[in-house]
Amino acid sequence: MAQYTLHFAEDALVLEAPLLRGSSSVLRVSLEPDSLKPHVALEARSAALEQSASRTMSVFAILGIVELFRGPYLAVVTRARAVVRNGPGGAEICQVVAADFFPVPKPSSAAPSAPLSPLQHRLEAKFLDMLHSVVDTRTLYYSHNYDITQTAQRIALLGQRLAPRTPEFKLDGGGFWEAPRHPDGKPIFTNEQSLASRADPRFFWNLNMSHAFAAARLDDWVHPVICGYVAVRHNVPIEVDGPSALSLTYLFISRRSRTRQGTRFNLRGLDAEGNAANFVETEQILLPQAGEVVDPNAVVQTVLSRRHVLASLEALAVDESRQGRLPHKADSFQDDVMCMPYAAMEFALQEVNRSNANTMSVLYAGTPALKTRRGKLGKLQDGLNSVTRYFINNFSDANKQDAINLFLGDFSVSSLGKTEDVFARDAGDETLASVFFKLVFVFLAVFMLGAVFGTTSPSANFTAATLTTMVLILSVAAHALRKGLSPAFVSKPRFIRADL
């Protein structure tokens, strides 16, 4: 995995690219003295590091710049893990394990700014924790040498000439991004573009963080990040008729859209432009041992994925041998769509799709997917997950929703006033903690009254206190439902826009 060197200078953050280490140019991230806005520029190494850096560290990727109360923060990946090492075209796909946000130093010539209020300090720390919580899900992925926001099929059909983030790009009849062209028919955008400039904006999760780099025409330093699930299975054997066997690499990628992304109870349906909430694109790629993409298929339903994988295997066998080493396997699939004639591929397909379903379910609903198994243990596990979902969705998902909106740039910290506490609860709202402490107080009060004035044993007092508390809980719950007061107990996201 490529590593950048981050230098912490007195008035700037300086980045050295892995392939340019020791060269004369580095990337300098600083603040403009007048406006204190982020300034990104290439500078001579000697000038950018004329003052010795206080420290240096290695980072794996650059996410962009986030602006909070204190000012701009440089977002970088500090820990990563290679998930795919030899993907399409030799691509390496990495999982973001940890990221950090470093404040950009103020220049010495800048005028002193007003200090942050205690409220702003508290909110700043909470905002940083929320950004880290998105990274900590370990569902962010990037690549140094492959456009992970695009499917292999779109890349192949467009000849790797992909439209950038401009209003001109559109969908053609087949649903693929169509690159604008000159009047003479030649494509405007070519394979020489940076990954960030040609990335699909639907799945470019750090798009909002890359604006300062794009404005300076230096977005080739930014690594487009997707949110989803990536898995690879190597040397999957394909049983064939005859002494020889075929083995494949099975690559699975799912991408969550950055438009209308959220949690189960907080974001549903479509917006005015037809964007569906929590849309996920799923892609499967089959690679022979030589590493060439044979037939990429983007599918969603399991039955369709089985049929597409089978078709890919059929095409691969015919192309490899020209003799059709896998004859008539598709015909057997027509008889039973839930039975694939290739056991190893079937196992890999089920395993990866199961893991993907669990990952997407945790992100959306808070627990792994409900398996709807028929056994007692399966039913108990599904019941436990359902109860867990109820509490997570009602009492904890609001913070997750706010973290997603903050990371994607759907909420701007600059819109808050100096004395505005965006997390202040509305009058009459109850927190889960406050309700819990009130119930504990009721239980202890009933128990102590029984112990002081009653004549029964402590165990009987405990039973009476427990029953009294349960009756009180049911009575309050019934009253709240009847009067429509239940929203007062449910946590509400603060960063959702009205148009979402």
Quick recap of the structure?
With 500 residues, the protein is of the alpha+beta class. It contains twelve helices and 15 strands. The longest helix has 26 residues, at 458-483.
Spatial order of the strands forming the largest sheet: 6-7-8-9-12-13-14-15
Distance between the termini: 38 Å
Query: Quick one: how many beta strands?
Result: 15
Query: Number of DSSP helices?
Result: 12
User: How big is the Rg?
Assistant: 28 Å
Coarse shape: flat
Secondary-structure-derived class: alpha+beta
> What share of residues is helical?
25-40%
Largest sheet: 8 strands, antiparallel
Low-pLDDT windows of residues: 160-190, 291-304, 318-328
Strand content: 15-25%
Q: Indicate the mean pLDDT.
A: 77
Order of helices and strands: EEEEHEEEEHEHEEHHEEEEHHHHHHH
Organism: Hondaea fermentalgiana
GO molecular function: phosphatidylinositol-4-phosphate phosphatase activity
Protein name: Phosphatidylinositide phosphatase SAC1
Keywords: Membrane, Transmembrane, Transmembrane helix
Describe this structure in words.
- The protein is of the alpha+beta class and 500 residues long.
- Among the domains are: 4-136 and 207-214, no CATH class; 237-362, no CATH class; 425-489, no CATH class.
- The chain is 33% helix and 20% strand.
- It has twelve helices and 15 strands.
- The chain has helices spanning 45-48, 118-135, 152-157, 195-198, 211-215, 302-321, 329-335, 343-365, 376-395, 397-408, 432-453, 458-483; strands at residues 4-8, 13-16, 25-31, 38-44, 55-59, 61-67, 72-84, 93-103, 140-143, 170-171, 177-178, 226-238, 246-256, 280-288, 297-298.
- The strands form three sheets. Strands 6-7-8-9-12-13-14-15 form an eight-stranded antiparallel beta sheet. It has a five-stranded antiparallel beta sheet with strand order 4-3-2-1-5. A two-stranded antiparallel ribbon has the order 10-11.
- Helix 2 (118-135) packs across helix 10 (397-408) and helix 11 runs antiparallel to helix 12.
- The longest helix has 26 residues, at 458-483.
- The protein is flat.
- Keywords: Membrane, Transmembrane, Transmembrane helix.
- One of its GO terms (cellular component) is endoplasmic reticulum.
- The chain crosses the membrane at residues 435-454, 460-481.
- One of its GO terms (molecular function) is phosphatidylinositol-4-phosphate phosphatase activity.
- Residues 131-302 form the SAC domain.
